[in-house]
Structure formats: structure tokens, C-alpha cells
Amino acid sequence: MATPTLQVALDLLDLDRAVEIAAEAVQGGADWIEVGTPLIKSEGMRAVRTLRERFPNNEIVADMKIADTGAIEVEMAAKSGAGIVCILADADDAVIAEAVRSARKYGVRLMADLINVSDPLARAREVAGLGVDYINAHVGIDQQMIGRSSLDLLHRLTGEVNAPIAVAGGLDAGTASAAVAAGATIVIVGSNIIKAADVTAATRRVREAIDHPEIRPREKESPDAVIRRLFEAVSAPNVTDAMHRKGAMAGIISICGRVRAVGPAVTVRTVSGDWAKPVEAIDIARPGDVLVISNDGRKDISPWGELATHSAKNRRLAGIVIDGAVRDVDDIREMGFPVFATATVPNAGEPLGLGEINTEILCCGQEVRPGDWIVADESGVVVVPRERAYEIGRRAMEVRKTEERIREEIRRGRTLSEVSELLKWEKRR
């Protein structure tokens, strides 16, 4: 079996950062350097020229995502130093035919990207017949966020297309190894390399994995288990960033400091410190759930205290969120149980039985429905709509990875302003 090719996708905006990351990736064993579409849109053909000059021994891939004017765009990439140019497989046949002619004229190769193609197998055969050199089984990042898999697409193509197959879309060392075992000859990895604090080590892990491919049985996890695993790996700020600053509760704090709570919401509406329904909800909730209690926003009387917390802990609930006050704070802190509230007060209410369990509530400015996911830590509490929980978990992981790389560059001596290129990217008015 031929040695698989490792292509690193530089889906970045800043050319200087891209060059630095590319150098670290090459040191780790990357073969081809992809000038990602965001980098091309940000820096133009200068990015292709610069990377060609800096890495004369590596193939440069220009991810142009050509949709029209195939000959012109292939020509400009080829003359800038690209050896491989990417075209959208769903471009019109006339566009692809012209791109092929231009590629032959300028001595470069074409890679057809199957992103968003409705019938990928049929289209892969068609574009291979039109003369493209490689087929890219690519699932885009927004599609990955909702659960689509590049490996699933690869399995549909293997052995069915008369062209070498590349695979791209959320790959890490494990899935890259499985991709080679399934027939991919080119493995394209982006964020799991370029966002790593140690890019060289991350590249080396993928390099070793694809050089020793194996088919690994997929872990059987329930959807809720996957969502929980994702949210437990990120912070509340990561989650609200992934939601474009949505979902964060206002005015709520962690009673026990540095604790975390992740789980589906069991909602409770109560009034005037009536603690009957909050306590009854403990028996209804499942292990790993988060009780979310609306107390009319009152802070002078508490529907929750140490005894209820002890009961919730025994039932293995993940945490408590209260739009209102909590009491017995010293005992709760000694337990270290995740309780989030808007205030503390000694006053307890009465068990009158008013209110409802598992109904839609408003808590600290956020609508919360039964089953919505709660992610809470010392920074605050975020509500994630249940129908978007997997997607937001995946997006929050991408936010976390981005921050890991930025943190490493700051550790090396750059400032946040420099890494972010704030002056360049400030919104023009």
C-alpha cells in the first residue's frame, strides 16, 4: 500500500500565523499544505505565493472552491505556485471542463470537492469522467455540526470511482486512520491540527495514525451521552460564544465557586419561596439532570436549602439553578454541590404545593423548557435549546480549540490584539 498523503488545511485569516503553523505542521510530517478558502479570501493569491516560496519541497493546494470562470481561477492559482487547485464538484460541467483544460495547460492538477452535492457517488463518477485528478469526500463544518460524517461519505465512494479519493471534514488521528483503512489516499486535516497548542505533536499523531491504518469499531453512544461528553469538555463561555452570545442567564452566580453542572433541565415554577414543587422535582429528575427553578425572581425568601441539596446529591443530580435565593449556604459549600442562584437569604418559605414541574419557565431572562441543556460553571449559566444541543456542543468544541491555539501564541509572547489582528478586522462603519 502506498504511503498516504497528509494534507493540512490552513483555514485561517492571517498569513503570518498560517506560515508559522504550516512550518510546525511540516515538522510533524505534513506532506501537502492547503491554502484554505478563508485564507485565500482574506489574503488573496499572496497567500499562495508566500507559502510556495516558504515551502518549496511541499505541494501547495489552493482551495479555490471554483464555481465559475474555471479557466481563469485555475490559471491564477497555478501562476501563483499552486500544484493542485480545488473546484466544486457541483459546478456546471462547462466550468469543470474549462478548469481541466486550464489545468493541463499550466501543469497542475484538479481536486473536485463533493461538499453539498446531493448525489455524491453519481457526481463523483461524472467529474472523474470529465478529467479531474482527485475526488474529495468532504463534509463541511456546518454539516459536521449537525452530525454528518465524512467517513460515511468515503465508504459510499470507495471502489466506485476511478480516481484517487481524498477525505476531509473534522478528522482527527483516529478517524484519519480509519479513513486510510477504508481507502482514502489523501487525508485532509484542519482544525485538529491548526488549532492545537502543539501543532507539530498534533500533526505527528495524525501522521503515525495514517501510516499504520486500522479499522476501529465505532463507539456506541446514545445521543444524550455524546451531548454530555461534548458539554463537559467546554466552558459556559465557550457555549455562549458558539451560540453568538445567546443563552446566558443574567445575574446568577455559583454558590460553591469552581463547580460545574451539565445536564438536561427539569423545570420548576414556584412562587414566594414555596419549596414543595422544587423538592418534589428531586424525585422526578433522573441522575445527571439539572433542576431549574423559577421563584418569581424573589430574593427575600428561599425555596431551596441544605436539606434539599443533600437530597439532590443523593439522587445524583448534576446541579441546581435558581432564579431566586438559596439559604444554608455554609452547609451547601461544605458539600461542594453545584448550586447557582441570584441571591442568598436565611428566610425559608412554606410547602404550599403551588406551581408546576416540567413546564416552560423564564429563568434569569432565559426561556427554559424541559430537556433543554444546561451548562453552568463559575462564569455563569447557559441554556441550550434541546433540538440544537449536539450542534452547539460541536461548535463549542471548535471555540475551545481556537482558544487553545491563541493561548499558546500569547504564551510565546504575542498579544491578543496581535493574534486577532484587531485593527485589520474591526468592523468598518
SSE layout and pairings?
Elements: E1 5-10, H1 15-28, E2 32-35, H2 37-43, H3 45-54, E3 59-66, H4 70-80, E4 84-88, H5 93-106, E5 109-113, H6 120-130, E6 134-138, H7 141-145, H8 150-157, E7 165-168, H9 173-181, E8 186-189, H10 191-194, H11 199-211, H12 223-232, H13 236-242, E9 253-254, E10 261-269, H14 276-284, E11 290-294, H15 306-314, E12 319-326, H16 329-335, E13 339-344, E14 356-357, E15 361-363, E16 366-368, E17 373-377, E18 380-384, H17 389-411, H18 416-420, H19 422-425
Your description of this structure?
The chain has 429 residues and is α/β, with parallel strands linked by helices. The protein has two domains: 5-211, TIM Barrel; 226-390, Glucose Oxidase, domain 1 (3-Layer(bba) Sandwich), CATH 3.50.30.40. The protein contains 19 helices and 18 strands. The strands form three sheets. An eight-stranded parallel beta barrel has the order 1-2-3-4-5-6-7-8, surrounded by nine helices. Helix 16 (329-335) links the parallel strand 12 (319-326) and strand 13 (339-344). The termini are far apart. The model has no long low-confidence stretch (mean pLDDT 94). Its EC number is 4.1.2.43. This is 3-hexulose-6-phosphate synthase. It comes from Methanoculleus receptaculi. One of its GO terms (molecular function) is hexulose-6-phosphate synthase activity.
